[in-house]
Structure formats: C-alpha cells, structure tokens
Amino acid sequence: MASGAKNNSYRENVEKISKLSFAVGVYRPPSEGGSASILLRITENCPWNKCTFCEMYKGQPFVYRPVEDIKADIDTVRLMVDEIREVAGKIGQEGKINRDVLRALLSVDPYLNDNHCFSTVFSWLYYGGKTAFLQDADSMIMRPLELIEVLKHLRKTLPTLTRVTSYTRSKTLSQRKLEDLKAIREAGLDRIHVGLETGDDELLKIVRKGVTSAEQIEGGKKAMAAGFQLSEYWMPDLGGRERWRQHAENTARVLNAINPSYIRSRPFVPRQGTEIFNDYEQGRLHVSSPHDRLEELQVMIENLDVTSRVCFDHNMNSWTNKNGGLLFSQDYEGYKFPEEKQPVLELIREGLSIDESRHIDVKELIAMGSL
Question: pTM score, two decimals?
C-alpha cells in the first residue's frame, strides 16, 4: 500500500487525537519518572502557597477542581490511548507503542508532537503505561470521598497502572482521619511525597511552612499507618549558617519518629523572586560552603535511626567524589538504612577530605542564574 493510502487509513484517528485535551500541570518529583508517568491535574496550584523559599505557584490562585471535570480528563486520556493503539494496529504494531507508531502519527500531522497532552500520553504508553502522578501541590486536600471517587475511576479507566502518586502536605495529613487515609490508599493512591523541609520548629515558623514538628510527626505516622509509601523531603542548609545544627538535629528527630519509606535530600538554593532570596541578598541569611553543607548532612545522618531508604536523587546533591564524579548515587531508591548508613557516612567523610574548590558552591549556581 502506498504511503499516502496508509496515512489515509488512520488520518481520522490523528484528527481525533489533535482535538483532545486535558489539564496538565508543570511540577512532579524526579522519582515519578517524568515521561514515564501520566500527569493528571487533580487540583491546581497550592492551597497554602506561603512558604518563603518556594516560587512554584506564586501568584497563582488555588483551584479545587470538580470531580466530574477530573473524571472527564481521565476519560480523555483513555480516548487518546485508544486512538493511538488503533493506529498501532493499523500499521502492524499491535500491542506495541514505539517510534514507528510515532512516525506514523507525525506523518499525518507533523505538529502533533507540539501538543503537550499528546506527548504526555504517548510517552506514558511508550514507557509501559504503568505510573500516574496526580498534580498539583496537595491532592489530599480534596474531600476524602471525592478523592476516592477519582481514584476508583482512574484505576478502572486506566487498568495498566501499577502505581499512583501525589504530593501532599504534613498539615493536611495531620488533619485527616486515619480511616479516611486508609480508604484513599485502598482506592488506589500508592505513594505520597511530602515537603518536610525541616523538623525544627523555629525554622518552620521563619520559612512559614504552616505546620509544627508535632503535626509533621502526626501526619507522617498516619500516612505510614494507612499503608502509603511515604517520601519525606528535607532541605540541607535551609537554616543557613545561623541555624544549621538545630535544623539537622531536629529534622533527624522528626524523621526518626515517622520512619518514612523514603527520605530525599533537596539542598537549599535561594531562588530569585522568593522572600528568602531577599534575606540572602540582604545578608540576613548566610548560605553554607560545600564542606559546611556536608558537615550539616553528617550530623543529620549520624542522628538518623530509621529503616528508610535515604536518597540524593536531585542534581543539587552535587558534591564531588575523589574521582571527579558525583559523591552520592542519584538512584531513586537511594541507600537502605540502617544497613547502608555507615557507607553514606564514609562518602560524607570522603567529600570532606577533598579540596572544597572541587565541589560546586551554591553561590556559583546563584551567580549563574541556574535556578
């Protein structure tokens, strides 16, 4: 069959795909696979939106999306999936979503790849259609029965999913009943990511997290008791040189009480346009040198008594080893504690033994504008 005739056999499919759209946000954790996850906007922006270090949703109002709108988006994803799979069958790639299928689609509409919704769905299928990430900053803020309805519809409509994940806040978890969290888990939400940032109450107030360390512990314990895989993020150097030790020790204290599935390091970088950047520029906050940051990390790790996986899966964990590579593995599964606690401490000591000029300094990143 001539190429033009082949194109005509699935032109209608491509035209349908080009007219389909659903809400897709910007942010998701690196460990949620990027192109490998289907991104679905359950709420829009952040219901708190007051943290002094965060610029992600600044100036954007929080939107509580109606359940029917969310379910319609999920249905749209399924329609797009069915159209893509039908094209795959027509070109002899039944059951396979590969580059041949993409080339066939683009041969009809070269601009289809500029369609963010299409790219999101095609990439998700290409990587197996296994994971979903529910955006934006705090999906758990939804009324429990509504979130359960969404999750059940998602699992029914996209049955290839093996993991569904979302961001949420410690405060929100602390306010939820344990039985509601268990019901949400059973409905199909597997993993949640929480920005702990620090376990120090003084610093929590300064950066306006809107939560206390007691609430962090309560929320984290509830999440673990409900059966979630829980990722807690902390920010080395968030307290600067002024509060580095209390930040490290109290963060370890809170994490020990929670004992989450994952502890993920996100070293602090003052971001232009945030209040905390103004504190840095005006000398009220002094960021630490690479060695100082490693010493803070050492105190935190020494104080950790958990069975968590401790991860450095972000490019801001940019310390150098003696061979010029990265000091820590950036694998999403990280290091299993307590078994690998001593090897991590040995890596920290290795980093401290290297001339500080060989490490990337956060001030260099700020100067380069790589934020």
Answer: 0.93
